[in-house]
Design goal:
The chain is mainly alpha-helical. 74% of the residues lie in helices and 0% in strands. This is Tetratricopeptide repeat-containing protein.
Length: 287
């Protein structure tokens, strides 16, 4: 497993350097590297359904980035924390964290793509509160920033954010706003742009599309997308994917008379997992 290796590396290789740090530019690099690795560990634990641990890793990564005075990396971790807050349905926290991240990135170079990502996190939070206009404005800002970022050299340590990422987040926004036609268009774009070897990202796009189609009353098509995700689940080892598949199954359970739904439910029934996806809801965020 990759996660135990990362955790071992953090505790045995990175931690001693942090304890021996005595100031200077090299120390900032060490703290930045530690922050980045810690954030990666947070994403790994989040994908395995361990949200309490993911939250702890993200919070530690943020503090390390701040200690390194690395505003770009601190903003990157804010995007990760905002995403997790959204997954936990903590939209007020998600909005505040994303806004803090935007403040951080305004003080750093090479952050146009990251700032676009943070604006989509704001849009997601605003969609959950039904603020249609503010959500649309945040998405427009994100799109404009991505257009400007084409020739920019990104800052070190920050994650990529591209047109497919924006389409995926926008699809989720319009789903939450019950604007199903627009949501379907954005989800289709995300799936198209995530063809090839981006299997995990494509699976999340397909699950979003399934939920959009349920909202539009097209249950047979939704179940077909669920079946497509079931085919790749074993290769992903992602509890998040399984959680969302189970949620889809619960939503469609009352429509098992539809042949496609019955087939999906039977396929899903062969998959089993235990998840703690709601962990991490009671702690306090560091920003």
């Amino acid at each position: 497993m990759l996660l135990p290796s990362v955790e071992l590396y953090l505790s045995q290789e990175i931690a001693p350097y942090l304890l021996d740090a005595h100031g200077g530019g090299a120390v900032a690099e060490i703290f930045s590297a530690a922050a980045s690795m810690t954030e990666i560990a947070g994403w790994m634990t989040h994908d395995s359904g361990q949200n309490s641990r993911a939250r702890a890793y993200f919070e530690r990564a943020f503090r390390l980035a701040v200690a390194a005075e690395n505003n770009a990396l601190a903003g990157n971790v804010c995007a990760s924390m905002s995403h997790l807050a959204l997954e936990l349905r903590q939209h007020t926290d998600a909005l505040r964290i994303a806004t803090t991240g935007i403040t951080k990135t305004s003080q750093a170079d090479g952050t146009l793509r990251l700032t676009a990502r943070l604006h989509t996190m704001r849009a997601r939070a605003l969609a959950l509160t039904g603020e249609n206009q503010a959500c649309a404005q945040s998405l427009d800002t994100a799109e404009s920033l991505l257009d400007r970022a084409a020739s920019e050299k990104p800052a070190d340590w920050i994650a990529n954010f591209d047109e497919a990422s924006l389409a995926s987040e926008a699809a989720q926004c319009f789903l939450d706003l019950a604007e199903y036609a627009e949501a379907e268009q954005r989800a289709a774009a995300a799936i198209r742009l995530r063809s090839g070897d981006r299997v995990r990202s494509r699976a999340f796009g397909q699950l979003t599309m399934a939920n959009i189609l349920i909202g539009a009353g097209r249950l047979d098509e939704a179940a077909s997308f669920g079946n497509e995700v079931c085919k790749v689940t074993s290769s992903l080892s992602s509890t998040r994917v399984l959680d969302q598949l189970n949620d889809l199954g619960r939503t469609l359970a009352s429509a098992r008379s539809v042949p496609e739904v019955a087939h999906f439910l039977a396929t899903l029934g062969a998959l089993s997992h235990v998840s703690d996806a709601q962990e991490g809801q009671t702690a306090t965020w560091p920003v």
